[in-house]
TrEMBL record:
InterPro entries: Peptidase_aspartic_dom_sf, Retropepsin-like_bacterial
Protein name: Clan AA aspartic protease
A family per Pfam: gag-asp_proteas
Species the sequence originates in: Salinimonas profundi
Domain of life: Bacteria
Entry annotated with the keyword Protease: yes
């Protein structure tokens, strides 16, 4: 009897347990989706961490626009801060995805303006004009290009930087050989360097009836003028009251004391240099103490070859009693720095009648009117 009781009890327990399991299964089937336990999906960052470069995220259009706008702001700030390497890196990445974005291309022009010769900036603007951008952008770029070219030619002519003018104008003349402004600028640069063959070859790009042919022939085919005669070994074209500047002899050269605003500098007197210049060391020493304006980068000829140099305009330079305002000077790269704070060239000396007395180490100056 005991065996049957145990057998009956076991079957009863087994039956009750089965019913409980069955009821639990039926309950889970009827349960609503919202009541079911949810296993969270991995986040985008989790998937990128797991899958590496094989997983790409989908960026909504408004997100892409926001990212591009933020990058433009970032690049603009880097340009203002003078962090040109980071600005260039971000620009290159942005232009890979948006090669025809006008804002990015204009930012690239700003970067080139600060880091490359101005002829490169002009050619960059020409590339933009060839892209078929909107009429508004086309007009903006055209105006910037013309202003850049006008200012560059004027500044280089004022500083008598004829080599720099030739190097600036040559690629533009080749790009647009029918452009009269480029032709005249390049022909002038060659003429002033006494290269009549190159001058004539450049002017040949103009129509035969262009008045420039006669003007250049009249201006640059002149006969050398004889020097005025002097009576006696001590004769001088200066009055006794003419200002004199004491020079410091340095071998066969002379050092001239000047002041850029109130900052004293010593420049190497060089009548063979068409333009005056400051060394990079001297400029970095005084740049926070003077008012100056950056005019662009140009390729100039130095004793060590062609170098890129910045052209600046300083508020004033004083030599003896004379004060010259709004003077343009180059900032020489360190590799080309002279044995002084810079060079005093003919764009400044040419504004005077001057005489160097090597016996007394004296510079006599008389301002031309």
């Amino acid at each position: 009897m005991k065996i049957w009781r145990w057998l009956t009890g076991g079957l009863l327990i087994f039956s009750i347990s089965g019913n409980i399991v069955l009821l639990y299964i039926l309950f889970e089937i009827k349960k609503s989706p919202a009541e079911k336990s949810v296993i969270p999906l991995p986040t985008t960052s989790d998937m990128q961490a797991d899958a590496g470069d094989n997983t790409k995220t989908t960026v909504r259009p408004e997100q892409a626009l926001s990212q591009t706008a933020s990058m433009k702001v970032s690049i603009s700030q880097l340009l203002k801060q003078g962090d040109y390497d980071r600005a260039r890196f971000q620009l290159q990445n942005a232009l890979k995805n948006h090669p025809r974005d006008a804002d990015l291309l204009l930012l690239e022009a700003e970067l080139l303006m600060r880091t490359a010769p101005l002829s490169d900036v002009a050619l960059h603007y020409y590339d933009m004009l060839d892209m078929g951008l909107s009429d508004t952008i086309h007009e903006t770029v055209s105006q910037r290009l013309q202003r850049l070219v006008d200012d560059a030619i004027d500044n280089l002519s004022q500083t008598q930087s004829w080599t720099a003018l030739a190097i600036f104008a040559e690629p533009l003349f080749q790009y647009a050989p029918g452009n009269r402004q480029y032709t005249l600028a390049l022909a002038t640069a060659y003429a002033e360097q006494e290269k009549p063959g190159l001058m004539a070859a450049t002017l040949a790009a103009l129509p035969p009836d262009d008045p420039a042919h006669g003007e250049f022939a009249s201006k640059y085919n002149r006969q050398p003028q004889p020097e005025p005669e002097r009576s006696g070994p001590d004769a001088s074209p200066f009055d006794a009251s003419a200002p004199r500047v004491a020079l410091l002899s340095q071998g066969s050269h002379f050092i001239v004391p000047i002041r850029v605003e109130e900052m004293p500098l010593s420049l190497l007197l060089d009548t063979g240099a068409s333009q005056s210049a400051l060394s990079a060391d001297a400029f970095n020493r005084i740049k926070h103490e003077i008012a100056y304006r950056f005019l662009g980068n140009f390729t100039i000829s130095t004793a060590s070859g062609n170098s890129q140099a910045a052209l600046i305009e300083v508020k004033a330079i004083s030599i003896s009693i004379f004060r010259l305002e709004n003077l343009k000077m180059f900032v020489l790269p360190k590799a080309a720095k002279p044995r002084a704070d810079g060079l005093l060239g003919m764009n400044i000396l040419g504004q005077f009648t001057f005489f160097i007395d090597q016996r007394t180490n004296t510079l006599h100056l008389q301002k031309d009117h």
